[in-house]
TrEMBL record:
PROSITE patterns: INSULINASE. GO terms for biological process: protein processing. It comes from the Bacteria. One of its GO terms (molecular function) is metalloendopeptidase activity. Residues 470-720 form the Peptidase M16C associated domain. Belongs to the peptidase M16 family. Pfam families: M16C_assoc (PF08367), Peptidase_M16 (PF00675), Peptidase_M16_C (PF05193), PreP_C (PF22516). This is Peptidase M16C associated domain protein.
Length: 992
């Protein structure tokens, strides 16, 4: 039992608090307690258990009244220095030098949250201290420059220059509004909630952000950032008494209870559904036909009703998101759009249910609505498919029990879920922590009419609904930019010479402020760990190579709580080069197409009833410090309870050997849907797309990645869609040929992450599976894993292209890439420290703080020698590239005292020692095995990180120089910006 569970019930020595209620949270083996701070009125929720990955969050209810983004700008600015920690960027100082497992802040439609997490008690307390001081005593009242930097400001180089807007949030939201899907979701919420805070953009609409005054900004903070309006959340293994008494003494006791008007009003239901038409920009190269979004949107009760919220998650899966779901399929069969999207949003007081037809046309709206209505009416009359409901419930239940959120601490996600009820009802902090009893209730309601009644009441007969048409318009971005330019020009012309000079002076003053470093005294006020606080040992690898029935198996023996994570990996070395583009299409098709014994809806149901999911994917294992060697594999992955491993393999066998790859109707649907989803990714994650493209100029593995997942693959799919009728036989033939080549027993390796019980279950099941595969195994001398999974021998036409890709967005993603092994350099753990320094110092200060970009990333220690610098939602292009060019000089002249080096080393170790879920432990071990990485390598790397010096960082300058001088540039950006700087590129072209 954790320290806090032992102490909490007695509530010893906590006179500043009263306990409001407590609950046993059996699902997560926790005790939940809710307190109220007597003097300040602060709410405190504790989830006490033995998880060492502790989480702290302080949140505030922050309903905005307009779209100036004030809540979002405050989220950025309070972390830019405070009373006790006056350095200009404590957030970044913490990122540089703490062992945090999470460090961020988030603005939602009605709340702002400041979460931190760490496994180190001393570090955890430091993080809490800095965040509490930031929210209650920020320097925003004394440094207007913080508001101008993070929010918005006028920028004027001299009285004759063009007047511009700049600011981090301003540019972040320009990037967000560059995605049609983001514009759609914003328009949907505005259409449903015209009279409440949900009807405006809490993140800020770039058209309105400059309307926010400094005085209004401060007033918002004064009103909402008070303990009486706060929600404090503590999770994990800690001394609750010590933590709460510290919170009282250091902060809460200095405040008196205050009545804060932050209630979220309910939107009154409409008399009938409303039709809304809106526009989004399209690039000149795109076609306005088949590019409209149609959406049906409805408000569904309140998020306080957690059972109903869970029920609608089930319905969204059963009706729309599961493969072959009836409503989605009905819309596809009716030819409405090329992709059907859906969402159920319950992170606001009044949840919303949305059905979207993407790549449709405006004149299809009536048919879209008619198909939705007729299909739902039929489902209500005939009843929902029992297995579809059970599959949806079991899938959600599996994920709930597994509580695997990847790199994010599960306590963080629990906290975010809890805010979904606690924020709106003080008595319901833990409602979302009792999932098991909700799942049992929802299972009991199958075949009772419960789900059908929900459909009838909320989706068919609901007047609180809207029909939204988001239409494309070519040149809209250009029109908006021209209007903005004209507006700023008119404003500038209205100013006197003295007023212009004042803006020039303000511009220069802000730059001087940004360039001036925090003083040594300010920086040293931020608490810092020591090297001794770092764990001495690296996390171990778990690789045991063995053979079952002469089949190579890699067992990663770790505690998994009865879940087996299994990968069936197939060799791709025999795949002809001309079929490589079809590999990812095959991975997408498998499991989403009819098989001999199941329709793809039935197959999906079977998978979700019996397993935690089955997926096909392409995995690439890069060879350690060898950019010319990589091993691509085709993986069929699944997660399943040990007792169901036999069922997992039965379903994988069905998928591999009995999929109907000749179903051209379904193939065409999949191609259109996959193309649509990749286009969405390219709009929202341009930095990753640009980096992948630039690496395709350098190495064979980079080209392979681009060929199977990047811009090349997108264009391959676009061609298949356009020429489908004439090429459908070729497509079927290619997929069948790939299946015959790949899925053989003599090219397969099994990776299993499980305890010994799970491995033993595998030994019983595997022979039946391997016997179903074609090919033979050498029974006299089984192959090793590395003999089975061979390095690729493709010969792609790798060449430097240096492209500028134009799209309708307003921001850029600027990438420079290189391979330092090809340039003759060797790896060293110090390169990971260099990444921390560059990410949170040089690039942060120049690309983000001064340049106004929302983000910047870099890598100098890629396993195979890959290195890059890239910006994210960046208003600049040439200026950012110039920053990359000068990065070498910064590194060569890098200066740091002992305290700063300690800080950079600790910050680096926080990424090295990130807590791993069982699945992540298995994946890390597998990657190490396939790359040739040993524990000696890991320990040497660790030792090099811990001993990094200023001089060693300087010695890395030639590698930084190589990233720029290798001259591999790829930019995704605004059409006008790309064309204006066409001399930077060998070729400029449309992204879509």
């Amino acid at each position: 039992m954790s320290r806090c569970v032992k102490q909490s019930k007695e509530l010893l020595h906590m006179p500043a608090y009263q306990i409001e209620y407590e609950e046993e949270l059996n699902d997560s083996k926790s005790l939940g307690l809710v307190f109220r701070h007597k003097k300040s009125g602060a709410r405190i929720c504790v989830v006490s258990n033995e998880d060492e990955n502790k989480v702290f969050t302080i949140g505030f209810r922050t309903p905005p009244k307009n779209s100036t983004g004030v809540a979002h700008i405050i989220e950025h600015t309070v972390l830019c220095g405070s009373k006790e920690f006056p350095a200009k960027d404590p957030f970044i100082e913490l990122a540089k030098g703490s062992l945090n497992t999470f460090l961020n802040a988030m603005t939602y439609s009605d709340k702002t949250m400041y979460p931190v997490a760490s496994c180190n008690e001393k570090d955890f307390q430091n993080l809490i201290h800095v965040y509490m001081d930031a929210v209650f005593h920020p320097n925003i009242y004394y440094r207007r420059e913080i508001f101008e930097q993070e929010g918005w400001h006028y920028e004027l180089e001299d009285v004759n220059s063009e007047l511009k807007y700049n600011g981090v949030v301003y540019n972040e939201m320009k990037g967000a509004f560059s995605s049609p899907e983001q514009q759609l979701f914003r328009a949907i919420q505005a259409s449903l909630f015209p009279d409440t805070p949900y009807g405006v953009e809490s993140g800020g609409d770039p058209d309105y952000i400059p309307d926010l005054s400094y005085e209004e900004f401060l007033e918002f903070h004064k009103k909402f950032y008070h303990p009486s309006n706060s929600y404090i959340y503590l999770y994990g293994d800690m001394d609750v008494e010590e933590k709460l008494n510290w919170l009282d003494e250091a902060y809460l006791s200095t405040f008196d209870t205050l009545k804060v008007d932050s209630e979220i009003p309910m939107q009154k239901a409409f008399d009938g559904p409303k039709k809304i038409i809106s526009l989004y920009p399209l690039s000149d190269s795109e076609n306005e036909v088949d590019n409209t979004y149609l959406s049906y949107n409805a408000v569904i009760g309140t998020s306080i009703d957690t059972t109903q919220c869970m029920a609608f998650q089930i319905l969204e899966a059963a009706l729309l998101s599961a493969p072959g779901a009836p409503l989605k399929q009905a819309l596809i069969d009716a030819g409405i759009g090329k992709d059907i999207l859906s969402s159920y949003e319950n992170e606001i007081l009044q949840p919303t249910f949305t059905i979207i037809a993407k790549n449709a046309n405006e004149e299809q709206l009536e048919k879209f609505l008619s198909v939705i209505t007729s299909t739902l009416e039929k489902i209500v009359k005939d009843g929902l498919n029992e297995k579809s409901l059970l599959a949806a419930i079991n899938n959600l239940e599996f994920r709930y029990r597994e509580a695997d959120f990847g790199q994010f601490p599960k306590g963080l996600l629990f906290g975010i879920q809890m805010f979904g009820s606690w924020l709106y009802d003080d008595t319901k902090a833990f409602d979302y922590m009792h999932g098991n009893r909700v799942f049992q209730f929802l299972k009991s309601k199958i075949n009772t009419g419960y789900y059908e009644d929900l459909i009838k009441n909320y989706l068919l007969n609901n007047t609180h609904a809207t029909y939204l048409v988001l239409k494309p318009k070519k040149g809209l971005t250009g029109e908006k930019e021209a209007k903005l330019k004209e507006k700023l020009e008119q404003y500038k012309n209205s100013l006197s010479l003295e007023e212009k000079e004042a803006i020039v002076a303000s511009t220069n003053h802000l730059k001087e402020y940004q360039e001036a470093p925090s003083t040594k005294e300010e920086l040293e006020k931020i608490p810092l760990l020591t090297i001794d606080d770092i764990k001495k040992d690296a996390q171990p690898l778990h690789n045991k190579e063995c053979s079952l029935e002469n089949l190579p198996v890699l067992h990663h023996e770790v505690f998994t709580n009865g879940i087996a994570y299994i990968k069936c990996m197939f060799d791709l070395s025999k795949v002809p080069e001309e079929l490589v583009p079809y590999l990812n299409l095959l991975a997408t098709v498998l499991g989403y197409i009819d098989t001999e014994n199941y329709s793809f809806l039935e197959l999906s149901n079977e998978i979700n009833i019996h397993t935690g999911g089955i997926s096909a994917e392409l995995i690439t294992f890069n060879k350690k410090m060898d950019p010319d060697t990589y091993t691509p594999v085709f993986s069929m992955s699944g997660k399943v309870l040990y007792s169901k491993i036999d069922k997992l393999f039965e379903l994988i066998r069905e998928i591999l050997h009995h999929s109907n790859l000749g179903d051209t109707k379904r193939l065409f649907e999949i191609i259109r849907e996959v193309k649509s989803r990749i286009q969405m990714r390219m709009n929202s994650a341009g930095h990753s797309v640009a980096v992948d493209r630039a690496f395709s100029y350098i190495t064979q593995s980079g080209y392979y990645t681009e060929e199977t997942k990047g811009i090349r693959y997108f264009r391959f799919l676009a061609t298949l869609e356009k020429e489908f009728e004439s090429r459908k036989e070729e497509i079927v033939s290619s997929l069948r040929k790939l299946s015959e080549i790949i899925f053989t027993k003599d090219g397969m390796v099994i990776s299993i992450t499980a305890e010994q019980d799970g491995f033993e279950q595998l030994t019983k099941t595997l022979p039946g599976f391997t016997n179903s595969l074609s090919g033979t195994l050498d029974t006299s001398n089984g192959k090793t894993i590395k003999e089975t999974l061979k390095a690729a021998n493709f010969n792609f036409p790798v060449e430097k292209l240096n492209e500028g890709f134009m799209y309708s967005g307003q921001v850029q993603y600027v990438a420079r890439c290189a391979n330092f092994v090809n340039a003759g350099f060797k790896t060293n753990g110090a390169l990971k420290v260099l990444r921390t320094i560059m990410s949170y110092d040089y690039l942060w200060n120049n690309v983000r703080v001064k340049g106004g970009a929302y983000g910047c990333m870099c890598q100098f220690a890629g396993l195979d020698g890959s290195a890059y610098m890239v910006s994210y939602r960046d208003p600049n292009l040439t200026e950012t590239d110039e920053t990359y060019r000068k990065a070498y000089e910064y590194t060569e002249n890098f200066t740091s005292d002992e305290r700063d080096m300690t800080k950079y080393i600790i910050g680096t170790m926080s990424t090295v020692d990130t807590p791993l879920t069982p699945l992540m432990r298995g994946s890390r071990s597998l990657n190490a095995y396939m790359s040739g990485t040993t524990m000696d390598d890991i320990n040497r790397d660790r030792s090099e990180i811990l001993s990094t010096t200023q001089n060693e960082i300087r010695m890395m300058a030639p590698i930084v120089k190589e990233v720029y001088n290798a001259d591999n540039l790829c930019v995704i950006g605004n059409e006008e910006k790309i064309k204006k700087n066409e001399q930077m590129f060998q070729e400029i072209k449309a992204l879509f």
